[in-house]
Amino acid sequence: MTLLRFLPCCAIVLLVLSKLTLAQYEHLGYPPGYGDQEQEQYTAPQLTPDTPRIQLRLAGDKRKHNEGRVEVFYNGEWGTVCDDDFTIHAAQVVCRELGYLEAVSWSPSSKYGKGEGPIWFDNLHCTGKEKTLSLCPSNGIGVSDCKHSEDVGVVCSDKRIPGFKFVNTLPNHVENLDIQVEDARIRPILSSYRKRIPVTEGYVEVKDGGKWKQICNTEWTQFNSRVICGMFGFPGERKYNARVYKMFARRRKPTYWDFAVNCTGNEAHLSNCKLGRAAELKTNGTCAEGLPVVVSCVPGRAFAPASMTGFRKAFKQEQPLVRLRGGAIVGEGRVEVLKNGEWGTICDDNWNLLSATVVCRELGFGTAKEALSGGRLGQGMGPVHMNEVECSGFEKSVTECFFNKESVGCSHEEDAAVRCNIPAMGFQERLRLSGGHNPYEGRVEVMVERNGSLVWGTVCSEGWGTMEAMVVCRQLGLGFASNAFQETWYWPGAVSADPVAMSGVRCSGTEMSLSQCLHHGAHLSCAKGGGRNAAGCSVSAPDLVLNPQVVEQTTYMEDRPMFMLQCAYEENCLSSTSGQVPANSYRRLLRFSSQIHNNGQSDFRPKASRNSWVWHDCHRHYHSMEVFTLYDLFTLNGTKVAEGHKASFCLEDSECDEGIEKRYECANFGEQGITVGCWDTYRHDIDCQWIDITELKPGDYIFQVVINPNYEVPESDYTNNILKCRCRYDGHRVWMYSCHNGGSLSTETEQAFPGLLNNQVTHR
């Protein structure tokens, strides 16, 4: 019975793996669930002679290649569609006519900008089953009382209709149409490139009508190559050995596509390019005065083939001016720029695919898949450095683009973000979650080579934690870790994968795959004798950030008698020498307030369930996390001289941003947590909100606070969990200044901060 129960799960895993193997460059995103249903094959619409012939395209200020203002080509002129009576059914007709599987949404009121020319359709009443938009009932073509402020836009699904065949019904105007093919790929031809991961060089092929075809290179330009490389995750292109490919083309006859390609070079995807003229093919099907198009792409540093690693290490990497933060997988995140030694964000006003692509290429990725706005990948901290960014698409850095230096009215709720195209590395094929109730959970199983064969096995449980689970979820494209378990008897996994195949795994959390983490290699060592590690993944995660200004403004000293610190003593909130002094002696406490914001995309909840919280009778409250924050004082050379810690006396929403309701309150054994957009304040006058500095000598020190130090709760960014300040103590008074969060300053500025590199938080 158990075996039958898990057979469908295994079959689906094999199906997914086989699809990834056969189609290296198919879009890899968050899986909607186990296996898709078998999809229909495209059949060209049979239109009656009296049906008006139109062509469609998506135009305007787009954030994705599969969205935009609906434009119609009719009677020799491009025009738009009015949003009056427009529905998702009409959007469905538009998307399917363009070769997309379905419509996702539609937008009224010229969201993608005002179009030009006539408004061809108004008051459309589609059922969603029409073969072309011109078959939907309307006022009549060209009959409209609308203005271009009412131009409608649509968002189509990423997936194309299998077997979709581009049908040109307006041959005299083919150069005005967007490219509409089922798929595209780079197929490696030379044996030296067939074994490389990622594939960087080969024929450019398009899938049209279910068949892969080459493109004639007679009208091919460098701009076209730039777009192809970008959509497959590469920032640039380079020259290749044309002589070798000429020899290959003579030996094996190519099958050519019917059209040329006309790109400007700053398109994010081939589908944004225009069709060129019909290809001039000889009677024998060969390309007139040409050969199949070949591209050779330059991978970013993180994706360079293994043979180039020595070259990479020979040069010291310069301080980048741009970075991504808060993203779940490689190539996505909130855009942050460095200015005057301080990291800040970009306001999303005018943020579009063109500017996002400049960011992606600058960071060693390809073109942008999506330009995100509204703080979709979490809110940043610090200043908003750029607003109303406008790029041509050919800048080396987004900092070279035109922008408005004034960011009046911009807040971190408007932080811009990107999702970039990255090379297909095949990471997903060597790892799986098995036995879970959904694709986002299960026992971790890895594929390794044993005696010349590839076999599945488990990972040793020793040392398994949140950082390792983070890498697993990233490798599978499933987002952030939500759980990391060392014992998972309720997720049995595949019986054939029970033997331990990987041990000694220690990850920093930034690796792209589990194999990049430290591990024992072929020399396995697992004292527990088995691995039942599991991971649960989530597309969102919290992100806790401490307010540095509050720490500076609330710091002071207090001398408090020992007999008033009994509860704090029981919870180990005093220095070790406090147990050897009389009850009427005094302890000198460095007090301060902590205001902890959740800037992430999901609520911060304690790992332990409510029934396992620990009751502390002295303070009369529950601890949902025994160590929530660490407080330390270091000398300027990094030696720890005083310390404190804070359990989660109560994780609750003290205050929230405008429009956000509080969810968590500790009264009456309530649920604990911090809602997105809210903050939890630990006031300076409560127990344990201090460092015991009774034995501290006068001098200059580094004050450090670390939130969630044991990584018990997964977060989207751990670098900003650290806060550091300069602290001066003269024996009578204390000053706290230059407080800042980890990762908020440039490398040079942080290196100039005494002791900063010597007292980094260590993992476990």
From TrEMBL:
<comment type="function">
    <text>Mediates the post-translational oxidative deamination of lysine residues on target proteins leading to the formation of deaminated lysine (allysine).</text>
</comment>
<dbReference type="InterPro" id="IPR001695">
    <property type="entry name" value="Lysyl_oxidase"/>
</dbReference>
<dbReference type="GO" id="GO:0005615">
    <property type="term" value="C:extracellular space"/>
</dbReference>
<dbReference type="InterPro" id="IPR050912">
    <property type="entry name" value="LOX-like_protein"/>
</dbReference>
<dbReference type="InterPro" id="IPR036772">
    <property type="entry name" value="SRCR-like_dom_sf"/>
</dbReference>
<feature type="disulfide bond">
    <location>
        <begin position="263"/>
        <end position="273"/>
    </location>
</feature>
<dbReference type="GO" id="GO:0005694">
    <property type="term" value="C:chromosome"/>
</dbReference>
<dbReference type="GO" id="GO:0006325">
    <property type="term" value="P:chromatin organization"/>
</dbReference>
<keyword id="KW-0186">Copper</keyword>
<dbReference type="GO" id="GO:0005634">
    <property type="term" value="C:nucleus"/>
</dbReference>
<keyword id="KW-0539">Nucleus</keyword>
<dbReference type="Pfam" id="PF01186">
    <property type="entry name" value="Lysyl_oxidase"/>
</dbReference>
<dbReference type="InterPro" id="IPR001190">
    <property type="entry name" value="SRCR"/>
</dbReference>
<feature type="domain" description="SRCR">
    <location>
        <begin position="186"/>
        <end position="298"/>
    </location>
</feature>
<keyword id="KW-0677">Repeat</keyword>
<dbReference type="GO" id="GO:0005783">
    <property type="term" value="C:endoplasmic reticulum"/>
</dbReference>
<feature type="disulfide bond">
    <location>
        <begin position="82"/>
        <end position="146"/>
    </location>
</feature>
<keyword id="KW-0479">Metal-binding</keyword>
<dbReference type="GO" id="GO:0005507">
    <property type="term" value="F:copper ion binding"/>
</dbReference>
<keyword id="KW-0886">LTQ</keyword>
<protein>
    <recommendedName>
        <fullName>Lysyl oxidase homolog</fullName>
        <ecNumber>1.4.3.13</ecNumber>
    </recommendedName>
</protein>
<feature type="domain" description="SRCR">
    <location>
        <begin position="322"/>
        <end position="421"/>
    </location>
</feature>
<feature type="domain" description="SRCR">
    <location>
        <begin position="431"/>
        <end position="538"/>
    </location>
</feature>
<keyword id="KW-0804">Transcription</keyword>
<keyword id="KW-0156">Chromatin regulator</keyword>
<keyword id="KW-0560">Oxidoreductase</keyword>
<keyword id="KW-0106">Calcium</keyword>
<dbReference type="GO" id="GO:0016020">
    <property type="term" value="C:membrane"/>
</dbReference>
<dbReference type="GO" id="GO:0004720">
    <property type="term" value="F:protein-lysine 6-oxidase activity"/>
</dbReference>
<dbReference type="Pfam" id="PF00530">
    <property type="entry name" value="SRCR"/>
</dbReference>
<keyword id="KW-0272">Extracellular matrix</keyword>
<dbReference type="GO" id="GO:0030199">
    <property type="term" value="P:collagen fibril organization"/>
</dbReference>
<keyword id="KW-0732">Signal</keyword>
<keyword id="KW-0964">Secreted</keyword>
<keyword id="KW-0256">Endoplasmic reticulum</keyword>
<keyword id="KW-0325">Glycoprotein</keyword>
<keyword id="KW-0084">Basement membrane</keyword>
<feature type="disulfide bond">
    <location>
        <begin position="391"/>
        <end position="401"/>
    </location>
</feature>
<keyword id="KW-0805">Transcription regulation</keyword>
<comment type="similarity">
    <text>Belongs to the lysyl oxidase family.</text>
</comment>
<keyword id="KW-1015">Disulfide bond</keyword>
<keyword id="KW-0801">TPQ</keyword>
